[in-house]
From TrEMBL, chain A:
This is Chemotaxis protein CheX. It comes from the Bacteria. Residues 54-130 form the Chemotaxis phosphatase CheX-like domain. Coiled coil: none annotated. The keyword Isomerase does not apply. Keywords: Chemotaxis.
UniProtKB/TrEMBL annotation, chain B:
This is Response regulator. Residues 2-119 form the Response regulatory domain. It comes from Kineococcus mangrovi. PROSITE patterns: RESPONSE_REGULATORY (PS50110). It comes from the Bacteria. The keyword Cytoplasm does not apply. The modification 4-aspartylphosphate is found at residue 52. SUPFAM superfamilies: CheY-like. Keywords: Phosphoprotein. The keyword Nuclease does not apply.
Length: 168, 127
């Protein structure tokens, strides 16, 4: 590893900030959820308690990362119904697919901000938040309320030497 | 006019196909590039294919490359509809043979503008 690269890794990851994440989420909401209640960003952190659904996509490349959207599990169905504009009987697959696509859209746009990014991974949806390595850095976070429930968008980037980082 | 919507997300297929149907398109859907190639083989050839980039089995760039390598599909217009927003990725897609590029998230209006640029807005529809 060259000194230049080592120096780069020591720099704060200020190319992905809360403001940029907020703009991406805002654009997505305007495009696909404008017919629903407003998404209300919060200046305070609201950790989701109880059952959770989390969708994530990985960013590979020189500075690996992971972009996650987490919601209260009960929000999964209304979120899918809103995205699909379908109030009929939706399946768990619809819910996972919709949440995964939300993560995919946010992740793809975040990837464009990360220098020397490699391919974007396919969305993974689970009932637990992805684990992170001790040196990973939370580069950006957005907590927002929709229909009275909380969503959290997070961007984690590998800290230190990204190749040593198993969490991201 | 007919459109093939290629995306591994059922939600996104529904969003894109719904917008195209409102414009007067008949739509068919495929969940990956390989499925889309089968749809083309079984015909008839659509006027437009919207293509996601990141998909399992066969990604969108591979699909575009394979379509452009087949002279039977010359009349098919290819539009990438993807989250891959970097300039370099756009250049790669266009170099491989895509005609237009639309970044998610997109509005129905931006989709109509791209179709207008391609001359693929059905008669009576204005962007």
């Amino acid at each position: 590893m060259t000194e230049l690269v080592e120096e780069f890794y020591d720099e704060p990851t200020d190319y992905v900030e809360d403001e940029a994440l907020g703009q991406i989420v805002d654009a997505m909401w305007a495009s696909y959820f404008a017919h629903t209640e407003f998404l209300l960003p919060s200046f305070e952190q609201h950790d989701i308690e109880g059952d959770i659904l989390a969708a994530s996509v990985t960013i590979s490349g020189a500075r690996p990362g992971i972009v996650t959207v987490s919601v209260e599990r009960t929000l999964g169905l209304p979120l899918a119904a809103a995205l699909l504009q379908d109030d009929g009987e939706l399946t768990d697959e619809d819910v996972y697919d919709s949440l995964g696509e939300v993560a995919n859209i946010v992740g793809g746009n975040i990837k464009a901000l990360v220098p020397d990014a490699g391919p974007l991974g396919l969305p993974v949806v689970s009932t637990a938040k992805p684990l992170h390595g001790a040196s990973d850095r939370l580069a950006a976070r957005l907590d927002a309320n929709w229909q009275g429930q909380w969503l959290t968008f997070e961007v984690w980037l590998a800290g230190g030497n990204g190749s040593e980082n198993a969490g991201v | 006019m007919k459109a093939l919507v290629v995306d591994d997300s059922r939600a996104m297929r529904k969003i894109i196909a719904g917008a195209l149907r409102k414009l007067g398109y008949e739509t068919i859907e495929a969940a990956d590039g390989a499925e889309a190639l089968k749809a083309l083989e079984s015909g008839p050839l659509p006027d437009l294919a919207t293509v996601d980039w990141n998909m399992p089995v066969m990604d969108g760039l591979t699909f575009v490359t394979q379509v452009r390598a087949n002279r039977d599909y010359r009349a098919l217009t290819l539009m990438m509809v993807t989250t891959e927003a970097e300039h370099g990725q756009i250049v790669r897609a266009l170099a491989a043979g895509a005609h237009e590029y639309l970044i998610k998230p997109f509005t129905v209006e931006s989709l109509e503008e791209k179709l207008s640029l391609l001359g693929l807005l059905p008669e009576g529809v204005q962007a």
